Amino acid sequence: MQQGRYHAENEGVRHRGRTGTWQFMSYPLLMTPSKMHTLQDDFQSSFWTLLYTVLHFIPCSLSRISLANILKIVFDEARWDDDLGCYVGGNEKSTIITHGHYILPYSETERAQIVFDPQAAPLNNLVQSLLHLFWAWDWCYSLMNRKRQLVHPTIKSDADKLLTSEVVIQLFKNAYTSPEWSHNTADSSAKRPNAEVGEQWRKTQRISQASDATSSRLEMVGE
């Protein structure tokens, strides 16, 4: 079991300093800048890229204020860590992966659930299906869960689907080819975030660039 966990977490890893668009980085990389960058981080990044994009352009159940707030606290969270000498984040992303905040029904999370317009119904299934895979992986392989000795075979099976890209790609294909799409999703009623969110995005990008520069300097010192 220990050998299997080691293989899953270290297959194809790379450590070149923390780089990438801050809003789309996986929560483990945001929380732990020294973490090895794995294939599973890239899969999770695709999830955040999808969610960020559709929240900007596809009508959903959230009010304009709630939407702007979620975009800010989930994607733009950044705070300076004096001990690490760089910016960190990812706490709210972590609660989404581990507890389903904003994705699962309110009755399960006590958070407003994001439900996309019926004209874009395939997005709801895609987001929830991806979330389940990341939750299973986190349950089986994350650093905080390594002491768990017993994992249900079904959860382990779902987690191991992230060892390759096949299942993730298929989920995107299934959503893309679904007959439930409507051609009228991008109408004028879409709740778009306001200019304040755009400014917050630019601010976080500056933080991300500063963090990348810090990581590069620390890496050079380490060498």
UniProtKB/TrEMBL annotation:
It comes from the Eukaryota. Residues 179-223 are annotated as: Disordered. Residues 189-202 have a biased composition (Basic and acidic residues). Residues 179-188, 206-217 have a biased composition (Polar residues). This is Fungal-type protein kinase domain-containing protein. It comes from Heliocybe sulcata.
